[in-house]
Records
---
Amino acid sequence: MTSVAVLGASGFTGGELVRLLLGHPDVEVAFVGGERAAGSALREVHPHLGAAAGALVVEPNDAVTAPRRTTDVAMLALPSGASSALAPALLDAGVRVVDLAGDHRLSAEAYPEWYGFVHPEPAWLEKAVYGIPELHGGAIAGADLVANPGCFPTGVVLALVPLIRAGLVDPASAVVDGKTGWSGAGRLATEEASFARAEESLRPYGAPGHRHTPEMELAIERATGDACAVTFVPHLVPATRGVAASCYLSLAGDRVSTGDLTDALARAYAGSPFVRVLADGEPPDTKRTRGSNVVELSAFADPRTGRAVAIAALDNLMKGAAGQAVQNLNLMLGLDETAGLPVAGWYP
Amino acid sequence: MTSVAVLGASGFTGGELVRLLLGHPDVEVAFVGGERAAGSALREVHPHLGAAAGALVVEPNDAVTAPRRTTDVAMLALPSGASSALAPALLDAGVRVVDLAGDHRLSAEAYPEWYGFVHPEPAWLEKAVYGIPELHGGAIAGADLVANPGCFPTGVVLALVPLIRAGLVDPASAVVDGKTGWSGAGRLATEEASFARAEESLRPYGAPGHRHTPEMELAIERATGDACAVTFVPHLVPATRGVAASCYLSLAGDRVSTGDLTDALARAYAGSPFVRVLADGEPPDTKRTRGSNVVELSAFADPRTGRAVAIAALDNLMKGAAGQAVQNLNLMLGLDETAGLPVAGWYP
Amino acid sequence: MTSVAVLGASGFTGGELVRLLLGHPDVEVAFVGGERAAGSALREVHPHLGAAAGALVVEPNDAVTAPRRTTDVAMLALPSGASSALAPALLDAGVRVVDLAGDHRLSAEAYPEWYGFVHPEPAWLEKAVYGIPELHGGAIAGADLVANPGCFPTGVVLALVPLIRAGLVDPASAVVDGKTGWSGAGRLATEEASFARAEESLRPYGAPGHRHTPEMELAIERATGDACAVTFVPHLVPATRGVAASCYLSLAGDRVSTGDLTDALARAYAGSPFVRVLADGEPPDTKRTRGSNVVELSAFADPRTGRAVAIAALDNLMKGAAGQAVQNLNLMLGLDETAGLPVAGWYP
Amino acid sequence: MTSVAVLGASGFTGGELVRLLLGHPDVEVAFVGGERAAGSALREVHPHLGAAAGALVVEPNDAVTAPRRTTDVAMLALPSGASSALAPALLDAGVRVVDLAGDHRLSAEAYPEWYGFVHPEPAWLEKAVYGIPELHGGAIAGADLVANPGCFPTGVVLALVPLIRAGLVDPASAVVDGKTGWSGAGRLATEEASFARAEESLRPYGAPGHRHTPEMELAIERATGDACAVTFVPHLVPATRGVAASCYLSLAGDRVSTGDLTDALARAYAGSPFVRVLADGEPPDTKRTRGSNVVELSAFADPRTGRAVAIAALDNLMKGAAGQAVQNLNLMLGLDETAGLPVAGWYP
């Protein structure tokens, strides 16, 4: 059994991480960390876990680095800024790290502009592997530090990389329109996030400076070698789970068809247990992915306007966060990619 | 008092039309028509109207053309195909018509491709005035036949025309991503539209052949003189009312700023009681427009990628259908544009 | 025009009050008061009001008592405790008061137990008239101080008083199960009220000590002369507006039928524009009452168990708060009961 | 591996049954039956199952009885009337049956009144064991035919039996107020069930003749020996999963306290992995039970009115249907009660 620590266990993503790991056949949850929740029983912090939470008690996050504690892997579901402050001590002590925050996804020079801080550990940042298993499985297996991607970038990068690699679309032309439920924003105690305010509300947020923008660009560039410029506008809709991203790009030529786009996606993910490529531009649906680690992808050509549309739908807390983190953990440990991860979603 | 007939009164749009007209100071609802609902009391078809429905009884739609019936204006909330079949007899009899269906919005040659039928009355079609009061108020005032716009085109045309007229964006580059609640699809009895299926579901639909696409293109072209090519993908989200459209276009030059875009919108609608232009790219929100005839508009520049984003939010049954139809009626009758129409929305 | 002040204008109820009063033909909104919102334009506090908010600026609540201000009626949508502290100065200055808080609904001795404070002005409390227009219209007309009822009590009292008066049910046997959307709790900034927490959550709250309990009991006792003991458990459901209350009582005899119960309700409210009595136990529905000042009532007998079930559904912010307050205002001013109040609801 | 057939696999409950059984360590899904879905791949009927559905194809329900088919247990998620028509042939052939429909829950004489048909096989009906594992585990283990309870009865029976057995409440005084999301009604294609109709709608349905009424009464009577008369009114609320039932009964004496009620529940379910008894009347919440086989129970006394309130919350498709059916299956097969069943719920 691998000994795993979950930091930031009291949030939505932390809760899903713990739930998945408690049901994982090859893993032992040895430590759950929190900030304000420190000292509370895990089952009080996450009553939905019930008896599955056993006798785990939330400890202060930084207690994970105490001497004589034996942790094989630490999974960090911390706020931005916190994981890059904490990770080096873990890594230096030989603990492998999966960082679910945004602290190891960009290049060092991008942090001041997009995250508002100077990255404290550029050396470790350079060693981080961006953790989309379907694209970087080999590197992830050997990594000490995996940067678990954001929810929108996961869908967008998976949707666009095969199309760009196949030369079917122009990477400089990408417009990405995102829709997300409220769980992506975490456990909020704000009027903005209240039910009475959020129900029946459709609205953009965070544009044009959303942090997922440079993450998408860099990830696509690294995977394809092509520079990419993304206009990204996310929108809040009255749902709890689920993100959908619709990507609009110029077709690389008059002859590119829906079939070409679909084929490129299908070929790229033929052996991937968690990517469901839909036929003929059939619409992806977040509803079918809820609770699973699956992303649905679809693409179609609009020859009338010379544009391609590629759409991704996924559960932001699963394939968009905790699920993908466990998938990365599986690769790091040499386990089957699907260990402890559901393919079937929750419905209805 | 002007004598008004509402056809297709049993649907969602028809219900809102009747509700608004029953509260309108200068109008008498003289006829409510339906198909399957014919013979029922209006208050049974729309129990939420209660005593406001008075003793009105739904009659067969085509009874509106019976001899000796005196109707000044007929408002047609009928399925596509039905209004173009019925309107000529009304128009020939001197009844003015507001058509809320899509039958008088395009040019005749577009109907086979986008609507699947050959338009039966191209002569009347040519006389139809496209009914966005903020852009075509003068022509509407004198029209016998007003084509009431679709919900998405209303928002998109209002958002883009001032930017294109001011030369700030490239009309050939338009990508429009739409989000809509379920009321836009009408009173449905399908599993797809069921609560258990629709809650927590984000998904595209109807692309790339959605009928609002050519309507947007033609309306923009008529208003600006510039050819326009729109890639339009609407999405269903778990809401009842509200449509939001995010429009992405290339900026016309490096120097175009958020301020320039906002100024163009603010100038265009300075005297318009139902257009709320937000400052500095502040996010529009369907929630604030519900129940009112207001559309919220906002725009910002993303100089990093050379793109403009313009966003519209409105209540699809109000400014996107019944409300705008009453606004058009007001212009046709020489009344104040706001007669019988709320500026304040419902909240929360 | 009557000069009206709205205190606590920044909350949900205050917002609805202002919206209704701005559209009221015989009233001028002369003052809007708030606490933290003081100094802000009303249209910023309630953006959904838009231009309807005019140039009104929120002032500190207690500025309403400043000398030389001319207010005919003050409507107090304040937290419990605040209205009883502020009302006396207004009343002593000749300003009539409608109190939407709970400060004038009970007898003085009940306040320590149910509200946790000693009532500061028992003298005024005794003069307060409980404001259910359908039951106490005459007294309301002449009142200086009207205690506007709570949302649940409004529905329960209207449902039960006719049945008790007609001797059809046993008032000592009342069980009331309430369901409410989240707007009843006000503008909250708590995790409990957040969308991600509240969606898909059905749960009781506040029992057995909910403040609406003694209000129901006292109101029924005053209206019928019969002592009444109510077990009341409200539940939160994932909706924004709407409360439904199902009341269970022992039938007074074996022979009491659904028809008897329905007849008693129908007779009691035959002339009431805002009470819709449904036939034959047909189910009330909050959806049909949203945005209107209507309450739907229905009752049926379950002879198998010897019980009666009476159910009320209404919009908690309208008939359950702001709407009924305006109805009370109309009576106080000798206006038509329906002035400024919609009978037709919002749908869908 | 036990060979299990799922009939009625295309519905919501059938889909959950299949999902649970596909992940069950000791079971093989050997047959999936449907009516209209026959001939389709299971993954098309339930796209959320994805690759987990393997190559299973839906066959006609009655093909399960074909010769040479080897089925150990058949689980029937069929409409009422269908399972009692099909079960005898299975049982006579030695196949054990778990019936999720209502066809084996009542006594024969109750079917004409509550279900509208004469029961076709009273002999088998008499042998059926009512399947609440926490109350009837022993009998279930040896049963050939288990009647899997309805969702509301599951919660109500679990909540009330310990209180009645302990003599704390009067079983003749039970009022049960139920709230349910829409999935309980199955895959509906009706306007009533549509999102635009159901959102923001709180309403009772099916009272006073709901079929769960006699089921509760009989189950309580069988478990306690006390006759029980239940007034039961269920309500639809805008949720997909989850039922909550609030039960109101007269306290058996002046001295019965919240502690007594809670203790009785806690003692009764001390060893039950799927029953979570909350302390001190703390409110149960369907949200925490979603996706798990857990029921939350809570009770409190209202000494002021001499009543007890006991509340149950559960996931209607899990502990209220498919989950409990698998729990029953586990008992029938001598497996651990929790095999293949989650204790941790989905959140948020």
---
Amino acid sequence: MSATPRRLRLGMVGGGAGAFIGAVHRMAARLDDEWELVAAALSSDPARAAASASELRIAPERAYARYAEMAVAEAQLNRQGGPGIDAVAIVTPNHLHAPVAHAFLDAGIDVICDKPLALTLAEGQALQAKAYARGRLFVVTYTYSGYPMVRRARQLVRQGELGALRLIQVEYAQDWLSTALEGSGHKQALWRTDPALAGAAGCLGDIGTHAYQLACFVSGLQARAVSADVATLVAGRALDDQVQATLRFDAGVRGSLWACQAAAGEVNGLRMRIYGEHASLSWEQQRPEALRLRRAGGDDTELLRGRTEHGATETIRVPAGHPEGFIEAFAQIYRDTALAIRSRRAGTSAMAAAPDLTTVADGVSGLAFVEAALRSAADEGRWTALPVGRP
Amino acid sequence: MSATPRRLRLGMVGGGAGAFIGAVHRMAARLDDEWELVAAALSSDPARAAASASELRIAPERAYARYAEMAVAEAQLNRQGGPGIDAVAIVTPNHLHAPVAHAFLDAGIDVICDKPLALTLAEGQALQAKAYARGRLFVVTYTYSGYPMVRRARQLVRQGELGALRLIQVEYAQDWLSTALEGSGHKQALWRTDPALAGAAGCLGDIGTHAYQLACFVSGLQARAVSADVATLVAGRALDDQVQATLRFDAGVRGSLWACQAAAGEVNGLRMRIYGEHASLSWEQQRPEALRLRRAGGDDTELLRGRTEHGATETIRVPAGHPEGFIEAFAQIYRDTALAIRSRRAGTSAMAAAPDLTTVADGVSGLAFVEAALRSAADEGRWTALPVGRP
Amino acid sequence: MSATPRRLRLGMVGGGAGAFIGAVHRMAARLDDEWELVAAALSSDPARAAASASELRIAPERAYARYAEMAVAEAQLNRQGGPGIDAVAIVTPNHLHAPVAHAFLDAGIDVICDKPLALTLAEGQALQAKAYARGRLFVVTYTYSGYPMVRRARQLVRQGELGALRLIQVEYAQDWLSTALEGSGHKQALWRTDPALAGAAGCLGDIGTHAYQLACFVSGLQARAVSADVATLVAGRALDDQVQATLRFDAGVRGSLWACQAAAGEVNGLRMRIYGEHASLSWEQQRPEALRLRRAGGDDTELLRGRTEHGATETIRVPAGHPEGFIEAFAQIYRDTALAIRSRRAGTSAMAAAPDLTTVADGVSGLAFVEAALRSAADEGRWTALPVGRP
Amino acid sequence: MSATPRRLRLGMVGGGAGAFIGAVHRMAARLDDEWELVAAALSSDPARAAASASELRIAPERAYARYAEMAVAEAQLNRQGGPGIDAVAIVTPNHLHAPVAHAFLDAGIDVICDKPLALTLAEGQALQAKAYARGRLFVVTYTYSGYPMVRRARQLVRQGELGALRLIQVEYAQDWLSTALEGSGHKQALWRTDPALAGAAGCLGDIGTHAYQLACFVSGLQARAVSADVATLVAGRALDDQVQATLRFDAGVRGSLWACQAAAGEVNGLRMRIYGEHASLSWEQQRPEALRLRRAGGDDTELLRGRTEHGATETIRVPAGHPEGFIEAFAQIYRDTALAIRSRRAGTSAMAAAPDLTTVADGVSGLAFVEAALRSAADEGRWTALPVGRP
């Protein structure tokens, strides 16, 4: 038993009382006991920021109303050898991701950013350039890559279990925007359907990018071209709520992607199927512990988390048959981030320590997909190229 | 108990020993005891034709080597008031569907034709015109429309259970052509991948049209435009084995269609999902007795064949929980055909008696889809219109 | 292609208009074209018998009002080398199974009898003795043994795939008798809950014996002792509708059996799980095409009918992924019966030709189970022995 | 936003490095941020106790080698108004549960005890008496009662959704003891199959009691009598690994319970079905987010956690479709415990605040079931009474 290092200190921007994703980040950070939340700018309203911080037992002197002030102050603590934050989690609405990330990168602080990385590809590329230039870790929380069976799928593909890949089918369907919820003042609906806050893409950026990232993560491929149909099914909505895209990946691999937030009866239906010469894999987020391996002309095998050894990079928290879920997948990303930071500080490679960690490069890749899909749709589904090489 | 009418007399062209679909037609015709097979041209090789007929207990004098001869002879029997056939089942390879159908239409005999109707849209339209001109029933055996829960889905849509439709997703995936099976002399693979025998489309025509018909059958809609990516995944194959199409139906309804015969692990994966404002339906052919109804923001209901009353036009053969399958679905089409013929002879409308029966119009619609999809794919996925109005 | 032998000629006792199981027998007999129905005593009411026969296109001279007369007359035809029946299907209510079977055995005619064989074990043993003495085939239609995946399970067990057996769990639950349906005059409910017509056991005999036979069929074992709790859940019912039995099979194998006809929400829930040292199998009748093989400490494999070669004795009618169901399973028994009869006539062993065919011995075994379970329940669940050795 | 109270302080006995259940308790305690682990006696070996405490970042002065010393010292801190523990979590092997619990009850400290409560019913009753006499909260962690859909099932039963209950079927099957794992020195296997450490029951006590508690928790009933068959399937094992029990609950409700740890292919198969006059519910632990409601003669509905409002007492952590699992269910019990303690301190009823919390009474009930089942099995399955009234 080696000595246990101190918990890493986490700061948070956004995620005040009532926010969904901020609370998830906090549970995820807490689960494996690698992090403690010590500082935050939870709201731009000083009174709300203070109240939220108190609710989260954050010391008043580290409850900030302005993120810029927080970045400066925490960096100052770090420089003094004092207890500044080791990383900041950015859980604001989308339009603030980039400016907040810039502030903390400028302060020399590692970043954990909710997805999407930014509102535009150019913004994302600027962040990536800065993160690389400053040598900062920049994690983008593509939660679903934290599921053990998604990681196992990636590993099986890489090991050649499927043979040469042929096809990738991903989809992400929900129904919570089946009606014009934004018209009723619903907070989540409001900002996610407002171009000023969410960017040029609605459903495409919000959940389509998750599906796209999943396809890339598991296959190890990037799309080279896209032909997309982007639509708004609910009358009066300012952004898309339905996307059907056909994809061409590297090496002639075909693909399709469907994303919809007005699909009645779909709860959180992220699904992936990937077909190779010899076998295929299928996975559904609502049943995350199982991965189905199906062989050409043969039988199906259902792989279950923890049931057989496999060496993927997931954490073993509870044995097979004791279901783990969304929070645990999210916690995997926080655990990997801690591992990466500790490795870097120990003088070894951060990414080698956590090779499945999703970062700013994945975020840029998603933005490239979004922009290409929007251009294709605006041009009657014309095949539109994505940048060559991983951004 | 009313007197039971005589069995209808069925002729068959194609379907000699070893043929898959011919045997299925015969079981389907037999199941409900409405038909007896009395005449056939089972092979163009006279010796084989005679041997196959003997095996099927067909009288030697009605075992023909040439379908044209059979059409003339059976029509002659009918004119004499003798026991000629009431209908002919055409179960040859695709390229013979049209010439055989012409011969029997010309002889005044009703036709039951395996799908696809013909090799080209023009051929199909000519058959349709002739069938209408001669007043003949022309059934095209879109088997899957015979499943009770597919019919129930159609009924639920028509009754408005889903609200206004938004999206239709269909797919049909198999893996039996995952390798270049045609290179090994496999008979089914050979003709299905040979443009001279199967037409310009491979997988698109073979199974894509089933998926398309299912979408139209359940929704009551026709596609207005298609953007397609048509590919050949297995090296050296002469026809497509992979199709990804994006669809626009009437009234702004969006759709997608995927068909593939090189999808490792897929057995006979025909699946349909249809989304409306309030609810959606999903159905899978490999689990045909269940239809899932999912409500926006609500719970899922699993409807089971025979479990609750619903009034669709399926036959009640065995109670709920006693699974029916593919042969029973096929038998439904034979039963509907018998009903249609008897109704016409009784002076009432054939189609009113069997409103879910699939006919030459469906066959033409499928050919229109195939041609538009091929044109779109050849033109880089350009949106390509389908004919307006049901053909 | 060898010459096809004539269809075997089937007679039927019981199964007039409106009867469920008679119609199923007829469809099953028809499906594979091995049988034709030519004679029947469909009702003890002469007018109804004649009308039902006419409806089934049976010649008036072979439509009998009394089964005894039919047995004599058809045997006479056979003796004259005339077209008498090759076998009789007995599809009456339970209390008539034995007397009808005696009449046809006495007439030297092979018997296909619906289950249960008789009302008492003694009656069943007498039938078995007579069938053996007369050298007649006596098939008891345990339908579920006709499912291909049940036969494959039997084969896997026999091949040692599971290792030494440990446990067998079977259950059969329905809900159609959840209310006192017999009080409303429902015909099926009336006779199945009337001790005079159904025997001393209700649900235990009606469906419990199916579950028991399935356990024995797949495992190759017989129960040696039973401890049972037999109950009536619906007030006023004259026979049991709920049975929970604990079993001890040969060789220390443990088991349990649950049967219930008042289990709300259960449609036709026959399920089996069988556990060995190394692996287990599970099967559900409402999803009959799949058999799940689960290995200790390992992954699950889902075996699908027709997907991989296996050599069980089922008929290949349609390929994998084209679901077969209850009628097809029933047809398997008719096909096996035809094979057995033809083999015997060809001078080879009937049972060697159809080794999975269920016969009078299975029927006697079921009656022995019923009687032991009733005795155990009457004696506060005392462990009660079943006869040693297959009856 | 009200002020957030301080975290409750948790002590732990047992659960040093490598222990499974101790780590789960800690994650569960941490997840909702209601608890902090501040003191522990992690091992009876002082060096190991200290090292484990260091690994868990527990201050050295509160890392105890002896639980008795810890109870005294922490009570002393509490009396001084100092930061003593608010509750102790007991996660030792079974035979220590009772002595440790006595020590902390004597010290006036609330107890959270892993299950089983004790080795014998008499021991359990003594603990219950002491807990009541001292007015201490005594939680027994029946984890599965923390799953939201189990709580919803309980609520639906209580609301009469099923009508009068008829039948309860529970089972818990695993395969990790399919071989004589204890012979290889496997630590978990060793103590769980050793009568001195685990008590007189093996599988019956280890997982059978979970199944029994689930039946009681959801139904609101207690068993009145049991007829059991208890067996050892793996040669040489000192305790049972297979139990089949038939149950009679209050009010004539029938039931069965199966528990097995040598069932090849079963991972952590805890399942429950409960049938009433009008409907039934079924739930499986490996798919915990769904609860199936099936109506007599009607359709099935699948209820999903978080999808529709229902008012059960579970915590909303993440929305529907974002799976929660075992750790979250466990965390629910820690959250309820915190709620109960805070309520009592605020002068209101602890149990009214957390009515679904499982306590020493449930533990005693489970021990009563175990003892009755063992007596029944030893007496050839004789029906054996359980104590009347909730213990």
